[in-house]
Amino acid sequence: MKKKIKTAFCCQECGYFAPKWLGRCPECGGWDCFVEERQAPSAGPGALPGKGMFSGQPVPIDSVTLDEDNRTSTGIHEFDRVLGGGVIQGSLVLIGGDPGIGKSTLLLQVIHGLSSLNKKILYVSGEESIRQIKMRSQRLNASSPGMLVVSEIDVDAILNMVASEAPDAVVIDSIQTMFSQDISSAPGSVSQVRESTMKLMLMAKQTGIPTFLIGHVTKDGAIAGPRVMEHMVDTVLYFEGDQNHEFRILRAVKNRFGSTNEIGVFEMKECGLTEVPNPSAVFLAERAANSPGSVVTACIEGTRPILVEIQALISSAGFGTPRRTILGLDYNRVSLLVAVMEKKLGLNLAGHDIFMNVTGGVKVSEPAVDLGIVAAVASSFLDRPMPEGLIAIGEVGLSGEVRGVSYLEARVAEVRKMGFTKCIVPKTSLKQLIKTSDIELVGITRLAEVMENLF
Known about the structure:
- Helix content is 26%, strand content 26%.
- By secondary structure, the chain is of the alpha/beta class.
- A nine-stranded mixed β-sheet has the order 8-7-9-10-6-11-12-13-14.
- It is globular.
């Protein structure tokens, strides 16, 4: 008799398995996300792929030797900064972002930089033909003999290529197009993405070849596929940016070999992505002078201080319910600060529409920009511009107090470099700074003092 094929239903959002179809996933709460998949037969205990790779006897950690130069520079300083200083041997890096944001363009330029160091790079595309890759590399002027390109989606065939060619780095574009013959489901399903990532991870750890994976994102902004994929990789990078703006931000949200929340800033041009070594100057280049509602503040992204412009527009509400439109800032945080201003400063903002924006398409979430938000709202409400050359840094509490912030010395150094002459900072953090004659530092403790210094 023919042996019956065992199947199960798998949630395409979180990877939860159920013996029958369910309308709602009990694990993640998603609706209509179960797909029937054939279960692979068990190979018996001890037959996991790549087991010999990790088998061995425990050794003292002091006896483990490391290479002195274990990082390789890609030639793109912003990309190296996000990775923590360069590419680590055997690392598995996942890069996600919206369609058309520039993920493939960035990695094509990265492997061009690596190939210029006489390294052999294997670029595997499951979405483009080799002719299309050639056309794009010519447009980006990123073509060299050390770059090997292939159009393939079979993971086992890719592993055979790696074994025969022995490249110094591998790029998979994209992981959602890969499939393994051990799994019967279609490419892009949870099982295929998980199995393909596992095989590539084992290959990277065994051979020491750094591997880059490009991942698509869902409508919610998360990388498509099971969440376990982000746990398997060493580094997770998100490529962010508004397609209406030319600036792109590469943000590290997980990094086993460097700092998290580090960012790299790029500018999209006709010839590809170019580095932005001084983001503060770019974000403030078109700032209008003596404009009410415009305030500059300093935020920290990873280890880098960046000056950004916060804009606010306060107008009378034309309908019964006032509108709140916030771009680039935390909506709940802005609502909290508006309530504090109404209670502690006596500003009647309840009947007004509030529109706020961070120029350049930047997203700021840290509480150190609270004082900049308060100053922008007050400036627009009173229709008075901020004093020339002034910047505001500080966190605001619910009782109207101004609290200290971290990395204040680095923020003030960036303020000084950009030519600002006066900086309002929390008084509790003022003792950390060395006073100089080229910039005036004003320490405050309450919101009322802010209004006195600004207006």
